[in-house]
Amino acid sequence: MSGDERDSALLRTAAVTDAAELARLSAQLGYPCDAATMRKRLERLAARADHAVFVASTGGGAALAGWVHVGAGLWLESGECAEILGLVVDAAARRGGVGRRLAAAAERWSRAAGFERIVVRSNAVRPEAHAFYPSLGYALEKTQRVYGKTLTP
Ligand SMILES: CC(C)(COP(=O)(O)OP(=O)(O)OC[C@H]1O[C@@H](n2cnc3c(N)ncnc32)[C@H](O)[C@@H]1OP(=O)(O)O)[C@@H](O)C(=O)NCCC(=O)NCCS
Question: Which fold has domain 3-135?
């Protein structure tokens, strides 16, 4: 089995039936969410051609080893590129190449969609991510602070 065949055996597009597992792994990313909410998000994303969610199956049952969400970004000032919007590998499956395969799936989707560049924003508190992305050829371009505000009606 070639590397590409092994990848396609492990990786597939997310299905709504993955919602509970996507939610479980989202909690590991620091974003807890119930399965019903995750399912609604997934249904909305599945209806969009400019976003994709790929999962790594474990080969047994419904359990997932990880997921990646990639989408098109469009900025007035800098144009468009693909963006990895979320990526997580189950804590029990880390350092086994799953993250590398999920990132490769996001890159394949981005190339096929015509993008020449892909970016990812990653929280400074994730030391493993800051070893992971450079090892895949991603260069640190800047650091940011993210501000948020609750909008009252
Ligand atoms: C970051 C993360 C996705 C990596 O997934 P993974 O499946 O463990 O990564 P891989 O096994 O494919 O690792 C690929 C390479 O990245 C580097 N790397 C990954 N994790 C690392 C770690 N903890 N320390 C040092 N290097 C690491 C290594 O160079 C590794 O290659 P090697 O194993 O041949 O040395 C995973 O640790 C994770 O889900 N972390 C929590 C969530 C997170 O940070 N997500 C990214 C947010 S944008």
Answer: Aminopeptidase (3.40.630)
